[in-house]
């Protein structure tokens, strides 16, 4: 049975699915979901992430987290956590770059939150000798010690719910089957229980406007913020999006090109842009401090990306063109430099490395 057939059966048995449930099944079904059945990363996959483009990305993220560890007074132990580590490239680069930070590796307890057995195997190969351990959920990572956390292109894959403003009020967008048995969108018959929240956030939206909420993202950020308040540390979220979103952004990618989100579920990557302002507000409500978001290119430049690039090119001149092109894609404002943003969370008011005190989020 294909995932599309399974989803069709669920709709027949239970009725239309909300978009978040559809996304969860399409991406995360344990045997038929996208991340369980294919290799999505790299030129041969469906998309390329920053760590795959340039080692400088992971190196600077690692050094940023290590610098925060130094500022915290070198706590031992400290939890170094990555959510959704992909093939382990980012953490492998971060680990290598921080090996000369005296005492850091000895203090670190490395935790990777990953649900895919296939990806865990790839990560284990790259991170052999680090003492890494794996978890299905952040809740399984031991608390009570400072937290250094990174999540690169994770938030965009967390499920969103969609709503349309109608004359009757806000109604939720669902996934159902059309007359031909194909997956299609339909509106729920009644006004959504989220109507009051939607009116507060999108009260000026015109009739027909479709907007998104992601309770899953906000719950994750709230959990992390509370841990930072209790234990100290730093969390970095890198993703594409904007401070505020006022329209639909659910999209599908296959072979580095756009696809239909309802076509062949489990065989295309699904994602949605991140509304960073809503996440910053959730973190503040939990008592944490939010910083930025800063454009990815700006933060990498402040952390020393170009200096690191020149050192790499001097050491490996034969690879210089590839190294320069990889970093250019990450920091060029016309490419990924502005499309991707970095939101930082801390438990105290000290600005994270690369951020200025004036960049503390205050809405």
Textual characterization of the structure:
The chain is α/β, with parallel strands linked by helices. The chain is built from 15 helices and 16 strands. The protein has a domain at 37-153 and 224-243 and 275-346: Rossmann fold. Helix 8 (117-126) links the parallel strand 3 and strand 4 (133-135). The model has no long low-confidence stretch (mean pLDDT 95).
List descriptors:
16 strands, Rossmann fold, 8-stranded mixed sheet, 23% strand, 363 residues, alpha/beta
CATH structural class of the domain at 37-153 and 224-243 and 275-346: Alpha Beta
Globally, the shape reads: globular
The named CATH superfamily of the domain at 37-153 and 224-243 and 275-346: Vaccinia Virus protein VP39
Gross CATH architecture of the domain at 37-153 and 224-243 and 275-346 = 3-Layer(aba) Sandwich
What would the average pLDDT be, to the nearest integer? Answer: 95
Judged by helices, strands and strand pairing, the structural class is alpha/beta
Helix count equals 15
């Amino acid at each position: 049975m294909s995932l599309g057939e399974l989803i069709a059966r669920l709709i027949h048995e239970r009725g239309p699915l909300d978009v978040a449930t559809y996304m969860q099944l399409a991406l995360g079904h344990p045997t038929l979901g996208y991340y369980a059945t294919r290799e999505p990363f790299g030129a041969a996959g469906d998309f390329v992430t920053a760590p795959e483009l340039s080692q400088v990305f992971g190196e600077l993220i690692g050094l940023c987290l290590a610098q925060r560890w130094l500022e915290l007074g070198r706590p031992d132990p400290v939890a170094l956590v990555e959510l959704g580590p992909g093939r382990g490239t980012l953490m492998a680069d971060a680990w290598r770059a921080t090996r000369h930070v005296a005492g850091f590796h000895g203090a670190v307890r490395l935790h990777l939150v990953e649900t895919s057995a296939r990806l865990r195997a790839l990560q284990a190969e790259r991170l052999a000798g680090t003492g890494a351990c794996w978890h299905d959920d952040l809740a399984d990572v031991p608390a009570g010690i400072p937290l250094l956390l990174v999540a690169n292109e994770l938030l965009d894959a967390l499920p969103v719910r969609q709503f349309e403003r109608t004359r009757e009020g806000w109604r939720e967008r669902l996934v159902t089957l059309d007359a031909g048995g194909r997956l299609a969108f339909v509106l729920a018959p009644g006004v959504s229980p989220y109507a009051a929240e939607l009116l507060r956030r999108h009260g000026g939206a015109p009739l027909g406007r479709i907007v998104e909420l992601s309770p899953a993202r906000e719950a994750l950020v709230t959990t992390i913020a509370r841990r930072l308040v209790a234990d100290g540390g730093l969390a970095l979220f890198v993703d594409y999006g904007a401070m505020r979103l006022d329209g639909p952004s659910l999209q599908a990618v296959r072979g580095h090109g756009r696809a239909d989100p309802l076509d062949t579920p489990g065989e295309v990557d699904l994602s949605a842009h991140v509304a960073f302002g809503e996440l910053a507000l959730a973190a503040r409500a939990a008592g944490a401090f939010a910083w930025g978001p800063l454009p990815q290119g700006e933060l990498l430049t402040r952390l020393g990306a170009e200096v690191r690039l020149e050192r790499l090119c001097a050491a490996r001149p034969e690879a210089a063109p590839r190294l320069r092109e990889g970093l250019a894609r990450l920091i060029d404002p016309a490419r990924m430099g502005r499309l991707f943003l970095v939101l930082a969370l801390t438990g105290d008011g000290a600005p994270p490395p690369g951020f200025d005190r004036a960049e503390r989020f205050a809405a």
